[in-house]
Amino acid sequence: MSTATLPEEELMEKVIAGERVSDEEAASLYHLPLNVLGSLADQRRNLAKKSAYAGRGADIVTYIVDRNVNYTNVCNVYCKFCAFYRTEKDADHYVLSHAELEEKLSELSEIGGVQVLLQGGHHPKLGMGHYLEMLSFIKERFPKINIHGFSPPEFHHFSKVFDLPVAEVLRRFKEAGLGSIPGGGGEILVDRVRNRISPLKANSDQWLGVMEAAHDLGLFSSATMMFGHVETLGERIEHLRRLRELQDRTHGFTAFICWTFQPDNTLLKAEPVGSSEYLRMQALSRIYLDNIDNLQSSWVTQGPKIGQIALKFGASDFGSVMMEENVVSKAGTSFRLQVQDIERLIREAGYEPRRRNTWYELIS
After folding, report:
1. What's the domain range around 59?
2. Domain count, the chain
């Protein structure tokens, strides 16, 4: 019997048993009623997390205290979906100084933060020394804060600007203090889509190549997907398949985060999708990505209440307190939560809130 024609009841039993689903089966699951798909994802979440945290993983939802620091907004790839970037001709362009970095990270340290998410635009003029000095400065001043920095497109950009292989750039950055890599710039890992929304940014093979090189060096990373613009369902599933295949080889992804395209103040003309579509794709991602243990709720784009509901649609992590966020907010979406808000939302959903570090280890 072809997997494409597997009866619905049999396919659901396969999901509940924790078995791997094919692309065709994923497409069939996508069309299930939302509550049914959510229930299946919840069961897969509990199965994936059951043995974690001394056997209590299914009862725990984690979160992290960190800060987004965008070290520059100068960028020369002009993505159509981005409202954050500026050129050097714009009056409000910037590159953060060490003093500004120290002020931001001192504030993070004061509230017990353990991670800085360090990302920026593709600045055409900053050299290798600038980045190595920035990493060394942060590591020296704040040794307890992990530097979760630079997305794969940034590393592809660095490789071209520095005229060095990606693996060598990664090695030097790691020596200077880089601890892990965020999954930004993934968008949809299909070049038809990338050529339409970000033609000057790293293509899908280059994005995946950076991640594989990082994993080979012992640098763990997250993985992401931004959907709801010009892609098809088949292309969303292809994106998930490429992540799953790489994870089979490297086991370097710690978590997956998906979110919907935020359209305000961007050049990309696409009708935004709603929260039900977000929940549907997150649930499908939990089922399909059977080798990535942690799925993060995207309350930053969906709002706290949908972020809370997402915990019943496959998510096992509530993301970050996020002291600062500049990219999504430029596109017209701005939500803020404090530690007590996150813990209350997690408890209301029936779970125990626990802080974590970058590697999903529980901390006091």
Report:
1. 36-355
2. 1
